[in-house]
Write a structure and sequence with these properties.
transmembrane helix, 14 helices, lipid metabolism, single chain, L-PG_synthase/AglD, membrane, 0% strand, mainly alpha
């Protein structure tokens, strides 16, 4: 009994997260006709397209490991892909289990340190990897907004507001990081001026603490850029892999759509919808964006799936969320075999 209690306490966050996300799905299914629709769809499911959705998720994991490995090998030539893949899966696991996906990067740094990497170098690698992903995601979103803005503006209520807030928030952060790398003094003055203004209009209660937090985050990226260098040969492949990864992840709803024997909606429209779902879900302060992810998927994809939207949400969450937790836990355990006592892997 004591062992069971200790196990529950150790994995309490995982249990709460899974219970919350599962509860949202079950609520939708049993308070609507979702379970009936799912039964009807299963008999007509086109397995080839469903397999492609699953393969896309697996390829996303592989891309995560590849991008991470390029950065790791840059500082540690003897580092290997197996380590990078396990670290990537650990990041996906803890991002799925923590609010705002905040636990992924710290656990990756911790795991890389356990595998023998210097903490500062591990932090620099993860900082560059994170910034790269954010830059590509914002750029991807800007292109799709320009391309599909009119369609979604007329089809989704409050689309303009949600999109603008998401793009401004992410773009502002990237702009600050870039400016900080060019001129730390100018950035500090700008950040302090904005925080003081927000404090005067009662939108920021503790200006000094907020400034220190933002400054600390910018300093991490600044130090990372100095350590990693400015090699174009390093960053171009990482950028290309990241674009491929985001595209694969955005194709999962389309493959699910085709597995339901539907084909009227263009693939580009559904890719755009998934990118917007990811952008909206990022603002949900719950592990795995529980509730927000399902809700935003319902809003953006309901017009495509019609009565089959709830089964679509179920399959999408299983493939793109629950599988990250399941296989992330598996590879977190496997990754322990690469741990070393104190030795640095040069």
């Amino acid at each position: 009994m004591a062992t069971l209690k200790k196990t529950i306490q150790k994995n309490l966050l995982v249990i709460i997260t899974l219970a919350l996300s599962t509860g949202v799905l079950l609520y939708f299914f049993f308070t609507t006709e979702g379970i009936v629709t799912l039964g009807e769809i299963i008999t007509k499911l086109r397995l080839r397209w469903l397999f492609m959705a699953i393969a896309s998720a697996v390829l996303c994991w592989i891309c995560e490991g590849c991008a991470l490995n390029l950065l790791c090998v840059h500082l540690y030539p003897n580092w290997n892909y197996n380590r990078s893949f396990c670290v990537g899966m650990i990041g996906l696991l803890y991002s799925a289990l923590t609010p705002f996906s905040t636990g992924g990067q710290p656990m990756q740094i911790y795991s890389m340190r356990k595998m023998g990497m210097d903490t500062g170098k591990a932090g620099s690698i993860i900082a560059v990897k994170t910034l790269t992903y954010q830059v590509i995601m914002v750029g991807y979103s800007l292109v799709l907004v320009a391309w599909k803005f009119r369609f979604f503006q007329t089809s989704v209520s409050n689309f303009s507001f949600v999109t603008i807030i998401g793009l401004i928030s992410n773009s502002a952060f990237i702009f600050l990081v870039a400016l900080f790398m060019i001129s730390a003094t100018t950035t500090n003055k700008l950040v302090n001026a904005v925080i003081q203004f927000l404090h005067r209009i009662k939108l920021c209660r503790h200006p000094a603490e907020r400034y220190e937090k933002i400054h600390g985050q910018l300093e991490v990226f600044h130090n990372a850029s100095k350590l990693m260098g400015n090699s174009i040969k390093l960053y171009i492949p990482v950028l290309v892999i990241t674009v491929f990864q985001i595209t694969l992840n955005s194709l999962i709803p389309y493959f699910i759509y085709r597995s339901f024997s539907m084909h009227e909606v263009p693939v580009t429209t559904m890719v755009a919808a998934q990118v917007f779902v990811a952008m909206v879900s990022a603002f949900v302060p719950l592990p795995g964006a529980s509730g927000g992810a399902e809700g935003s998927f319902y809003i953006f994809f309901g017009m495509f799936f019609g009565s089959a939207i709830l089964p679509a949400i179920l399959l999408w969450r299983i493939i793109s969320y629950y599988s990250n937790i399941l296989f992330g836990a598996v590879f977190a355990y496997i990754g322990k075999r690469y741990n070393v006592p104190d030795k640095i892997v040069e």
